[in-house]
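Run Receptor like protein 30-like through structure prediction, thanks.
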Amino acid sequence: MGLFESLDFSSNELTDTIPWQLTSLTFLETLNLSVNNFSGAIPQERKFNTFSNDSFLGNLALCGFPMTKKCRNDEKKTREVDDVDNEDWFKWKIIVMGYGAGLVCGLSRGYIVFTTRKPWRCVKFLEGAQQKLIK
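Sure, done. The structure for Receptor like protein 30-like is below.
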């Protein structure tokens, strides 16, 4: 994602903050987010600080450059908090996926062992693996 030259999301009744992922569109020459309900600070990364005030008109709760309304400190920190939340969510997602996969494998193995009524194979395998680890 980086080959867009023009992006027009005007008059779509979009809400919340401007997604910071839009800053990764490095080839973007024109952006129109006017007449929506965006709030918070306008991202300042990459090309975002080159867009004119017209790109953001009609979003009364937006603040920061190029708008004349200055941001309070808590509005500027919104992006930083969102980044941390996204990173934490990604880490937990990996942990839960690993736990789920282990649980499925363990339950499947237990089901197979006890339905075939040959748990000695499992015991023999585990004893062999334990002996290899000890050596």
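The two ends are 52 Å apart (CA to CA).
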